[in-house]
Amino acid sequence: MKKNMATEITIIRHGETIWNVQQRIQGQRNSKLSENGILQAELVANALAKREFDILISSDLERAVETAKIINKQLHLPFEYNANLRERSFGKVEGMSFAEINQQYPVEFHSYKQRDPKFAFSGGESIEQLFKRVTTEIEVIAVKCIDQKVLLVSHGLVLEMMMYKTFNIRLSQPRVFSINNSSISSFYIDGDRWFLKEWGVIEHLVSLNVLNEL
């Protein structure tokens, strides 16, 4: 890999939200950061202040924007919103708990739990659609910001799709790695070649016990 021709992309999962705590599916609906989530965002901002970046790009969903604004109080980077970095859409079940979904839509819930890549709740996205949206947009950003250091604030399943792309994991395979709120992960993107630099850094969170992977 010619590192000087690659784009380094560091991606942060937003801070914990009220719906994370309540174990509700957020999807593309908005849920504010919890007090814990605000603290997480402040702690990750402190950690990121020791690094260098050229631009900050955030999902346009409220929880990501709120996290990004807390981070940018310290970093003072050029700041953009990007709707293609949104969480997966879960359509009609957004705002519901897993128990409520299982009770009201048991057949669809089964397809969801089986991780059928083509399955989507009514009005929502399939894993295949999410994967295409995320990986296409990351590669667009990488070309636009070639040889730069880009900081993204996004969502758990966006991070998941980036890992599945990097290691060519089948979309039907269950996830076997953690995605904590306000964790730090970094990739090198060189055309259609993706390389993992670091995954799920949480040193800035561990001491204060503010972790949450929901």
Automatic annotation (TrEMBL):
<dbReference type="GO" id="GO:0004331">
    <property type="term" value="F:fructose-2,6-bisphosphate 2-phosphatase activity"/>
</dbReference>
<feature type="binding site">
    <location>
        <begin position="13"/>
        <end position="20"/>
    </location>
    <ligand>
        <name>substrate</name>
    </ligand>
</feature>
<dbReference type="InterPro" id="IPR051695">
    <property type="entry name" value="Phosphoglycerate_Mutase"/>
</dbReference>
<feature type="active site" description="Tele-phosphohistidine intermediate">
    <location>
        <position position="14"/>
    </location>
</feature>
<keyword id="KW-0378">Hydrolase</keyword>
<dbReference type="InterPro" id="IPR029033">
    <property type="entry name" value="His_PPase_superfam"/>
</dbReference>
<dbReference type="InterPro" id="IPR001345">
    <property type="entry name" value="PG/BPGM_mutase_AS"/>
</dbReference>
<protein>
    <submittedName>
        <fullName>Histidine phosphatase family protein</fullName>
    </submittedName>
</protein>
<dbReference type="GO" id="GO:0005829">
    <property type="term" value="C:cytosol"/>
</dbReference>
<feature type="binding site">
    <location>
        <position position="63"/>
    </location>
    <ligand>
        <name>substrate</name>
    </ligand>
</feature>
<dbReference type="Pfam" id="PF00300">
    <property type="entry name" value="His_Phos_1"/>
</dbReference>
<dbReference type="InterPro" id="IPR013078">
    <property type="entry name" value="His_Pase_superF_clade-1"/>
</dbReference>
<dbReference type="GO" id="GO:0043456">
    <property type="term" value="P:regulation of pentose-phosphate shunt"/>
</dbReference>
<dbReference type="GO" id="GO:0045820">
    <property type="term" value="P:negative regulation of glycolytic process"/>
</dbReference>
<feature type="active site" description="Proton donor/acceptor">
    <location>
        <position position="87"/>
    </location>
</feature>
